Amino acid sequence: MHAKIMGTGSYLPDNQVTNHYISTLVDTSDEWIKERTGIASRHISTGETTVEMAAAAGKKALEDAGIGALDVDLIIVATVSADHLLPSTACSVQKELGAVNAAAFDINAACSGFLFALNIADSYIQTGMCRTALLIGVETLSKITNWNDRNTCILFGDGAGAAVITASETPGFMAGIQGSDGARGHVLSCRGRTTDNPFADGDLSLGYIYMDGPEVFKFAVKKVPECIQEVLEKGNRNLEDVSLFLLHQANFRIIKSIAHRLRLPLEKFPVNVDECGNTSAASVPILLDETNKKGLLHSGELVVLAGFGAGLTWGAALLEW
Ligand code: UT7
């Protein structure tokens, strides 16, 4: 039995924010942002919630797969920007979609979240725990972004991407790897509530994303090529066998450096960071949906997905489309 992606979907807020606009908020410029990141604009919520965006992307993925909400028996949402601590985003999406037969839960593996969700779904399908899973990566990073911090506010965007993965006779998910290094968690973090109760005085101020950009950059350009090689080894395939590499969209310079290190043409790395910025857990599934809808994924061809981010975490998947 294989686990195969049968449909994809995505949702991006209509509100597109340019670098020019951001340069009215902080000391930066369109030239600097484009040159250092490749980002020209990003979609920012004008009120769409994390649940609304996730449900919209999920609905499109179900339509694309040609199945109904009742067919879904597992919903996993990867996010770091849930609307509520409880219930989970996945349970709220279940309610929105009427997917009453599904078990639903969230995971937090930051920008690697969709890769971790794929691994979980594959394991559930292989062990008979489920047949059809709806996987969603969604972020409203704009609400945990400090809009006065030029180190971070230029980078992030909002949006959601989704995929339906189901038990299939034909090949699909071939190999997955994942990893974490909690000792380096401090380089990319966002504080939640601290303990504030009758016995402890907490800090009730809001936490925002903090990032040591250069450290994360160095981690990404070393770790992602390693994990791509590792997943290919696990799947008994070579770099040359792969048609497309869909990477977490954090910075165009990171993508270029990874392609260079792997000695692969940049054309094999679809990009949307220019229009979406970094949407963390949503980035890989949004790019997957865009690539799918453009007709660039052909049956029988191999695709590698890879993500990296806070935790630190990383993950990669080898798929036969
Ligand atoms: O999804 C999670 C993963 N996150 C990432 O992958 C992010 C990885 N890191 C990066 O993409 C890059 O490190 C950044 C884009 C965040 C920063 O680019 P950089 O080339 O590493 O710049 P830097 O932080 O080393 O800063 C270089 C200079 C500094 O000025 P001085 O000290 O050289 O005078 C900064 O103060 O650029 C300055 N700077 C800016 N200038 C204009 C930093 N941010 C800005 C800005 N506009 N927005």
Helix-strand layout with pairing:
Layout: E1 2-11, E2 16-18, H1 19-22, H2 30-37, E3 41-43, H3 50-65, E4 74-78, H4 89-97, E5 103-107, H5 113-126, E6 132-140, E7 158-168, E8 173-180, E9 188-189, E10 210-211, H6 213-234, E11 242-247, H7 252-261, H8 273-276, H9 283-293, E12 302-309, E13 313-320
Parallel strand pairs: 4-5, 4-6, 11-12
Antiparallel strand pairs: 1-7, 2-3, 6-7, 8-13, 9-10, 12-13
Helix pairs in contact: 3-4, 6-7
The protein binds oxa(dethia)-CoA.
Describe the structure.
- With 321 residues, the chain is of the alpha/beta class.
- Helices cover 31% and strands 25% of the residues.
- The chain has 9 helices and 13 strands.
- The strands form 4 sheets. Strands 1-7-6-4-5 form a 5-stranded mixed beta sheet, sandwiched between helices. A 4-stranded mixed beta sheet has the order 8-13-12-11, with helices on both faces.
- α3 packs across α4.
- It starts with a strand and ends with a strand.
- Bound molecules: oxa(dethia)-CoA.
- Oxa(dethia)-CoA binds next to α2 and α6.
The backbone outline, from C-alpha atoms, is globular
Q: What string gives the helices and strands in order?
A: EEHHEHEHEHEEEEEHEHHHEE
Major sheet: size, sense and barrel closure? 5 strands, mixed
Q: Supply the number of helical segments.
A: 9
Percent helix: 25-40%
Number of strands: 13
* Strand order in the largest sheet: 1-7-6-4-5
Regions with little confidence, pLDDT below 50 for 5+ residues? none
Ions, cofactors and other bound molecules: oxa(dethia)-CoA
* Relative strand content: 15-25%
State the separation between the terminal residues, measured CA to CA: 15 Å
Instruction: Write down the Rg.
Output: 19 Å
